[in-house]
Design a protein that fits this description.
mainly alpha, single chain
């Protein structure tokens, strides 16, 4: 008889333990599910924020690129007039030509800096993997060129030298920065 009572008590304890285990599982599943949903929501929000930043950086680049293209067109117009001018007129136009060349180069460098910023944002945003130190190094390098161009006393040969430097640097790095 004692054995039957102990067996009944043991069965009741097992049933209680199973009920507790079931309720614990449901509690854990509910808590884990909620935690996972929160994490997914946070990831989506971060993704949307990064996507927005990348699009904004791209927009700024496109604006600067358009500005650079317009300034190059202005320079080419002045250069065309300079080629058509006689020797005396060329001397007077040289300052204007240098001014437009400097503005065109500054706008190109600004566009390249905005491009690098957009690549950097896209790099953060996705699996688009470019070494961020490499990007930072390029930004520093182009900022140094921008600083050189801000000197208002550059002569034509210096502008030509800077233009060649810009062209060479861009040709060197452009293939690695394609978006």
């Amino acid at each position: 008889n004692d054995a039957n009572v102990r067996s009944d008590e043991s069965d009741n304890e097992n049933e209680d333990n199973e009920k507790d285990d079931d309720s614990n599982r449901e509690l854990i599943r509910g808590t884990m599910g909620e935690t996972i949903r929160e994490q997914v929501k946070e990831m989506k929000e971060r993704y949307e924020e990064q996507k927005k930043k990348a699009l904004e950086a791209r927009k700024h680049y496109m604006e600067e690129r358009d500005k650079a293209e317009a300034s190059v067109e202005d320079y080419l117009k002045v250069r065309g007039r300079w080629f058509d001018a006689n020797a005396t007129e060329r001397q007077h136009m040289r300052t204007e030509l240098n001014f437009h060349a400097q503005i065109a180069l500054q706008n190109q460098v600004n566009a390249l800096l905005k491009y690098l910023e957009s690549v950097k944002e896209k790099n953060i945003d996705s699996n688009y993997l470019i070494d961020s130190n490499y990007l930072d190094q390029l930004i520093i390098q182009w900022t140094a060129i921008k600083t050189k161009l801000q000197d208002g006393n550059l002569i034509g040969s210096e502008l030509l030298e800077i233009s060649n430097e810009i062209r060479q640097d861009w040709l060197t790095h452009r293939s690695q920065l394609k978006m």
